[in-house]
Amino acid sequence: MKYFLQRLGFYLLTAWAAITVNFFIPRLIPGDPVMALINKNRGQIDTKAIASLYVLFGLNKHQSLWSQYTTYLSQLAHGDLGISFSNFPTPVSSILVQSLPWTVALAGVATIISFATGTFLGVLSGWLRGSRLDFLLPGTTFVSSIPAFWLGLLAIAGLIAVGSQFPVSGGYDPGLIPGTDTEFISSALKHSWLPLAVLVVTTMSGWILSMRNMMVTVGAEDYITVAHAKGLSDRRVMLSYAARNALLPNVSGLSLALGQILGSTLLVEIVFNYPGIGFEMLQAVGSTDYPLMQGIFLFITLAVLLANLLADIAYLILDPRTRKEG
User: Which residues does the UniProt record annotate as the domain ABC transmembrane type-1 (predicted)?
Assistant: First the structure.
């Protein structure tokens, strides 16, 4: 319990630091976003409403910086991330709610598949070292060295060159309305398989290599020899004794790799015009939409922190030593 509370306190402190940095980002960027919005929508916004726009965007010049900061924290507590410049007057939270499920589904499924498949293949490769499974390592290591966005571009070029009918852009067929009907779900799955495959292929080899090395190391431990001497089956020794202990470093590595996986997901979304957070970020950067960028950066930071906390909880469950006080 003490270990869990320590980790929870660390993540809460980190989340507060991330929120504070996120508050200062738009205030350190040169330029006046309100005047930029008025110039962009010349004739559509009354110039007499300038003061109201400053208040609306949380940039009230008559407020102290501390007062703006406390107002920002209060708005966050109520789920208010501000108003998008490029989609005025749509709230940033509404845009994120629309794009968030796409990114969570893509990154989540890719992480689960790559981690589970890579760990399983690493267990077999390490336990049966010297077998044909060792030939997986050079190929997967080479593929993982290719950036995910570049592999995505190569996949798109290859499919177009051979005249494939599989979709290489978008999240669903044009004309469909997002919903829970069978036609939309089938179209979304068809559009997601290529970016999903790119993410899985580029992240899986790291789990294979690390798990294989740990299995080789654990295989030489005394408790493995004792388990064999007891007459336990080879499968039980591999899974219950060797794999469980070899898995711990992979769980720790997962918490460190989540940020990289999410970053790769955002770039892959841009390559495939996938309607997730990455695609929205590209639109926000292109239109200098500071509130939307601010909301996306905050989401990415908090998502990585939450995923790391879950990984620490998994480590707590797998390793009994972390549950012992003193």
Answer: 100-311
The one-letter code for the residue type at 46 is D
What's the mean pLDDT in 43-70? 68
Burial zone of 238 (CB within 10 Å; 0-12 exposed, 13-18 middle, 19+ buried): buried
Q: Is the peptide bond before 89 cis (omega within 30 degrees of 0)?
A: yes
Measured in residues, the chain has a length of 326
Q: How confident is the model at residue 239 (pLDDT cuts 50, 70, 90)?
A: confident
pLDDT band at 326; cut points 50, 70, 90: very low
* Residues 6+ away with beta carbon under 8 Å from 178: 172, 184
Give the chain's domains with CATH numbers: 2-77 (no CATH), 92-323 (1.10.3720.10)
Q: Which of 186, 118, 167, 142 is nearest to 274 (CA)?
A: 167
Predicted structure pTM score: 0.74
Closest CA to 107 of 268, 295, 253: 268
